[in-house]
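Protein folding task:
====================
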Amino acid sequence: MIETMLCALITVLPDYLFRRFVQGKRIGHEITLFTMWYELRWGLTTCAILALTVITTLFYFHPASKTAASYFRTVTILPQLGGRVSEVYVRNNEQVTAGQPIFRIEDFTQTAQVEAAHAQIAQVQASLKVAQTDLAEAEAGIAGARAALDQALEDLERNTTLRDEGSSAVRLAEIDRLENLVAEREAQVTAATSKRAAVVQQIEELIPAQLASANAQLDAALTELDKTIISAGVTGRIEQFGLQVGDYVSPLLRPAGILVPSSSGHDRFQAAFNQLSAQVIKPGMIGEIGCMTKPFTVIPVVVVEVQDVIPSGQIRPTDELRDVQTNTKPGSILVYLEPLYESMADDVPPGSNCLANVYTDNHAKLEDENLGFWEKSFLHVVDTIGVVHAAGLRLRLILMPVNTLVLTGH
């Protein structure tokens, strides 16, 4: 409407003034409702063409969006294990910090596993003490076997010497018996040494491995026990939380509530523009937004990113081939906006519905001395009509409360 009125000032109005003061035609006489088209045909035709041209140029170089919002993420409060709730530490709408416990589920099984792991560790430690006793016993056995072997060797050596000297006090059967006794004592020493080596291997390898396995089982049991306490992963506010002691929660079917992170969705807005704006909107462009949660306030923003894909082209493998004709609604260009100045959007709650405009700026191009007259004039016109769009945004913000509360029945 504003564009049409401005175009009428330089088309329809001069045409009427010419008819009135040059040709002497008057409203209500020569110019009536029935003769208006014929009398003002040049002005009306020129006004329509110029208005359409201005509006097209305006919306192309200064895109607008009615669907701008500050999206935020939510974190579902889910346990890693299913079970019944035994304790609840927070209430709904309460602010929590990262790591703060929210609730606990029954931990009888996990506690029993921890106690069993402790018992296993104690058993392994006791077996280490037994093995150390066995080691001392094996060393004593080696000492006794060696002493017996030394005694048998002395007896054999003495009797062998007497035999070699021709003494009649030595019998050959006795020497044979002593030789067999020495072999037996050597075998006893070997057996005692092997027993000691087995005990040493048990102390140095088997028992440490058993202890490491028991400690690993304890760590696993403690990890499972920790899973019974559900804590906040991020700082935020608890929403839709009505959990009571005795309720059953599950990681698949029964979430406990929603956690809204405090830092999510602030100072960042997403706006959807039509596909004609793909070649116009670029990072660094200046824009403005106005939100329903903060009426009568225009927030200067800057384009920080433009999504390089259009969501309507997304496909997911199924058992049916995709028919492009079913995509009747064209997708939009997603643009990320951030406030141009700090603290400008602090009062805008995440999820607010907003209006957005972005403006093409040709100031840098206009400084080029090689531009022709018509090109420079066109760029001046593009920059100038952006003021009309800015005025339109402010007008819509003024009318937003009336439209919402009165005309749409809020």
